[in-house]
Design a protein that fits this description.
Oligomer: single chain
Order of helices and strands: EHEHEHHEEEHEHE
CATH architecture: 2-Layer Sandwich
CATH class: Alpha Beta
Strand content: 25-35%
């Protein structure tokens, strides 16, 4: 299977871990709070590629950013977003759309849209195993890495918004 490689320079701003798996966990390392803080600090753009999105605090932060004039765009996995077994994600996607957030659903062609990525103002990226869900925060061993660097952000923008949005079959936003 072909892979792409890109040398990009950035600075790690923080490493975060899920709360539920560590009894002595420092709340300052809370993955969901780190993501919310990124949306709260965004000034121009917040672009997201996400497999599972059911954490209401993150959705509310996305909507608040949109209301402040930040261009918020989401690419989510269609299977997760339209599954009768995942009504919470269906509700969250609908809530985002009602608030004016641009949401695209990627249909599996060659692989699941299994990313967990946020790109903020073209200069900061958050990525890791952390699904943006309450379960990920409270019950799973998850991680999140925040990287500052325009080269890293550009590489993710290219992957998410050029590759996925042009090569995957998308469900037209309603």
């Amino acid at each position: 299977m072909p892979t792409e490689h890109l040398a990009a320079h950035g600075t790690v701003r923080g490493v975060f871990f899920s709360l539920g798996t560590t009894p002595s966990h420092d709340p300052r390392l809370d993955c969901a709070k780190a993501i919310i803080d990124l949306f709260n600090g965004a000034q121009k753009t917040a672009h997201v590629a996400i497999f599972t999105l059911t954490e209401p605090r993150i959705v509310d932060a996305m909507i608040a950013a949109r209301k402040r004039g930040v261009a918020v765009a989401v690419v989510a996995d269609a299977g997760q977003s339209q599954s009768p077994s995942n009504p919470v994600q269906t509700q969250m996607i609908a809530k985002l759309r009602r608030a004016g957030v641009s949401v695209h659903l990627a249909i599996k062609q060659t692989a699941l849209m299994h990313n967990k990525v946020g790109i903020f103002d073209g200069k900061t990226v958050c990525t890791g195993s952390f699904n943006w869900t309450n379960a990920a925060e409270k019950h799973n061993d998850e991680n999140l890495l925040i990287i500052d660097g325009t080269q890293v952000a550009s590489a993710y923008e290219k992957f998410v918004f050029q590759r996925i949005l042009t090569k995957e079959t998308l469900v037209v936003p309603s």
